[in-house]
Specification:
heterodimer; A: mainly beta; B: mainly beta
């Protein structure tokens, strides 16, 4: 059973930077996409971004709210993923979750599709951006 | 304003059946699978339903999912006190090129 553990959260001033890490144990992450999802205090879930696997060239996608400021990277040899955050804003204050994304193949005629879902969540690490 | 629309609250008494809706559009729920999560306050979300109607191992059969057109639903039958939580739907949006979530539905067991 895979376990994800986030670290690196803390307090930072607006405009500052922070680097979050996600370490996986119990199973390899290398074949999986990995997402970051955040939750502001008292609010709902917001997707931050994701990184694909090596087979898909480590493609990255980001939410519009963080694009250009956040960068996701991964080290499959260390079974870990990193979220580098810069130019932080007060509205980035949230608990940040690392999430494994799995996918199931689906054949429709001769075409192969993949059905994606986020299945394993870490416990989260809190980030506070305040002056 | 969430891309997916969920009712902010729902309630029921023990043993009842409660249904939570999730409404989207042609770029998300209309073409991609819907997944549901349960979040007990103070804990991380937990996958409850994936691929519209599949339950991960360990999730009781009281939880079921369905989808029709651009709307999805989560049904909880035989409601129990431990079902009190916030429930979120999520789906990949092809126009936004990212995951989108509903605003969450807080379920109260009366």
């Amino acid at each position: 059973e895979v376990e994800l553990v986030e670290s690196g959260g803390g307090s930072v001033q607006p405009g500052g930077s922070l680097r979050l890490s996600c370490a996986a144990s119990g199973s390899s992450l290398s074949d999986h996409y990995v997402d970051w999802v955040r939750q502001a205090p008292g609010r709902g879930l917001e997707w931050v971004g994701r990184i694909s696997n090596k087979a898909h060239r480590y493609t990255r996608d980001y939410a519009a709210s963080v694009k250009g400021r956040f960068v996701i990277s991964r080290d499959d040899s260390q079974n870990s993923v990193t979220l580098q955050m810069k130019s932080l804003k007060v509205e980035d204050t949230a608990v940040y979750y690392c999430v494994r994304e799995s996918r199931d193949p689906l054949w429709v005629g001769e075409l192969l599709y993949y059905l994606h879902y986020m299945d394993v969540w870490g416990r989260g690490t809190p980030v506070t951006v305040s002056s | 304003q969430s891309v997916l629309t969920q009712p902010p609250s729902a309630s029921g008494t023990p043993g009842q059946t409660v249904t939570i809706s999730c409404s989207g559009s042609s770029s998300n729920t209309g073409r991609n699978i819907v997944n549901w999560y349960q979040q007990v306050p103070g804990t991380a979300p937990k996958l409850l339903i994936y691929r519209d109607n599949q339950r991960p191992s360990g999730v009781p059969g009281r939880f079921s999912g369905s989808k029709s057109g651009t709307s999805a639903s989560l049904a909880i039958s035989g409601l129990q006190s431990e079902d009190e939580a916030v429930y979120y739907c999520t789906v990949w949006d092809d126009s936004l090129n990212g995951w989108v979530f509903g605003g969450g539905t807080k379920l109260t067991v009366l």
